[in-house]
Amino acid sequence: MSTAPHIESTSGNDDLDGGSPEPDRSLQASQLRSDVIEADLKVNPGKYRILTGDRPTGKLHIGHYFGSISNRVRLQNLGVESMLVIADYQVIYDRDGVGNLQENVLSGVADYLASGIDPSRTTIFTHSSIPALNQLLLPFLSLVTESELHRNPTVKDELEHTQGRAMSGLMLTFPVHQAADILFCKANLVPVGKDQLPHIEVTRLIARRFDERYGRADPAHPVFPAPDALLSAAPLILGLDGTKMSKSRHNTIEISMSADETAKLIKKAKTDADRHITYDPQNRPEVSNLVLLAALARGEEPEAVAEQIGDGGGGGLKKTCTEAVNELFAPIRARRAELAGDEGYLRQVLREGNERANEVADATLHDVRTAMSMIY
Ligand code: TRP
């Protein structure tokens, strides 16, 4: 991995005591940078190392598939070195227990592999198995102020979803933990949606501040590269009731569901009274969402799918959508069923991923302790 293409970034005020909460890049600047990298990825995939992750709080669903998993597979297949964290320590920042953690983690591994993640090219690992990654949290926490953490938009957003539950120290600091996920492997690219940009900014801030405080011995080689966001082009899919797709709202289609379960769920989805199907997310969110789902599954434009359904009404729309989703997922689900029956193999994939991630994390922690003069 060498350096990513250089583009001037607009640097904000990084002074720790100045307490600048402002991200150093506007959305526009991040988008511009992301577009340049997207083009470069096809030419120079070897320049990049990406990190992505999921919280194993439930089963992965088609929102994960279209929003991130399919993009991970695409990047992996371009030849980009890829790390995938199953963020088990993140499960507990907003709840009292770990839930069905074992089941969720193994099910997630089966979903990844069935979807095309190749464990020989993508390192799949669990947070809690990588001690050196977690130890990075200590020096990193010294680089951010309490008020910066409180002002983080993603933390605020997460807190709002916990319905009055008190914020745990882990939730307040999870962006820093996430920075450790990214920086432990010196990833220089993180595929995210726009709403996740604040995380990348925190990570960039930590990388820079670490270097300012401890890395000056060799300015040409900062300990941590400042990662870039690769902004996702995937449109947001809503749940089958037209609200945000989320397991707790029971409006998702899980990757592991059968074709029949999928058909039943889509049958119950909300539509409207107008029999003429159009793609109009503003005015017809529920109908448009089903059109979008069918379009994504078929790899076509939503407008074209809507036109084909024409005056078919809600029934025609649901039929088209069900067929498209089930057709796309049929081979994935068949592979998944096989994998799910071989728990030993799934655990072996994790063991090997964890072993690789530990090697990387140990080397990075050594760099960190060297920079901090903490080798004895
Ligand atoms: N918080 C992410 C999610 O809920 C998962 C995650 C953990 C992650 N660590 C990360 C994403 C680091 C990007 C970078 O999906």
Q: Which secondary structure elements does this structure contain, and how are they paired or packed?
A:
Elements: H1 27-43, E1 49-54, H2 62-78, E2 81-86, H3 101-115, E3 122-126, H4 131-135, H5 137-141, H6 146-151, H7 153-160, H8 169-183, E4 189-192, H9 197-214, E5 228-231, H10 259-267, H11 285-298, H12 302-309, H13 313-340, H14 343-371
Parallel strand pairs: 1-2, 2-3, 4-5
Bound molecules: tryptophan.
Describe the structure.
The protein has about 375 residues and is mainly alpha-helical. The protein has two domains: about 230 residues, 3-Layer(aba) Sandwich (Rossmann fold), CATH 3.40.50; about 90 residues, Tyrosyl-Transfer RNA Synthetase. The chain contains 14 helices and five strands. A three-stranded parallel beta sheet has the order 1-2-3. The structure holds tryptophan (TRP). The site of tryptophan has 12 residues, from strand 1 and helix 8.
